[in-house]
């Protein structure tokens, strides 16, 4: 849809998001067949979501948060955006609005956008390419290291292991070249970690909090509340990076999340969470 890029994109408790995540993973595992998707219809729905977001107060909240973040980092451009874990936007209204926000950011900053989610259907990938977005061909597990250009990592409602891997890959002064639009670190810090397999990931996120400035994106219209609940912009300004000692960056260990951990978690979910209990 050539004209789309011309557009200038826990209210509920985290347990609800967790149930959604479990339900999504189990349904995909137990029902691997790809649904019928009308790409033209899906493109129209995405355009409608972009227009709705453009006409909502949330667009200015998003713009203001990004402007404050860039000002703090003393830059004006976002040349690269990497998106992990968007989900099946053909089936999920929340994912559709998250995609609309991504397209809004891309349009405003003329950014190059790269996406990966193993859940994407083939028709969804076709739609993303039609929108001018590039697909990442391998599962990076969030371990992309940035170069000297600023990179915005767009990971709304993303798995905490992927967030932690992104931080781990850029551990040190390189974090100054990263903006993370994802689950609020403050809320992660205040929460209780129920899954033992996520403890290392959560501990790494907590460890980096002294280096973070967080801008909360208040979801203030109906379509945004579910899509952007608990979402914040996180930046790592030099002023805060300068406050920590060299020892702070040492003994980081291995990336906290690996694909095998996810597969073990999936097997545990299959065994312990019948679909009827979590829908």
From TrEMBL:
InterPro entries: SRR1-like, SRR1L. Pfam families: SRR1 (PF07985). Transmembrane segments: none annotated. GO terms for cellular component: cytoplasm; nucleus. Residues 74-234 form the SRR1-like domain. Belongs to the SRR1 family. This is SRR1-like protein.
